[in-house]
Amino acid sequence: MKKNIFFLLEDAGEPPGVSTSALCPTSRPALWPSGKTLAQRSERCVVRCPAESNQVEEEVVVVVVVVVVVVVVVVVAVVVVVLVVVVVVAEVVLRELVEVVVWLVVPVVVVVVVEVVVVVVVVVVVVVVVVVVVVVVVIVVVVSSF
Description:
Blueprint: E1 6-10, E2 44-48, H1 50-101, H2 107-145
Antiparallel strand pairs: 1-2
Helix pairs in contact: 1-2
């Protein structure tokens, strides 16, 4: 996706054939709309700089990829921390509940239920992290292909 960036420049009254090398790495003559000449003052000329536009596009793609990766990493980190806190709190609360209920219910059943809940939550956390990592990799590959 190569595009040209056009710069609008005021005519300073330079003679025809003036070099645009100060503006573009590849010196190209100014392009005038409607066939007007360089000698006409107060008109606008358009200078094409394809080499600079390619570099700008590459820099934009790199910045976009870096921003996307940083945002996804931060979101994944926050989700993992929240899920770990939820699992730890749930396990502590359930264990305290088990200690209270031990006198009323068969202890083995309650402990098994608590452990099953903890295992299910941990499996869900791992699946979410794997899905997020796969999505990040796909996004980076798609964005870097442009």
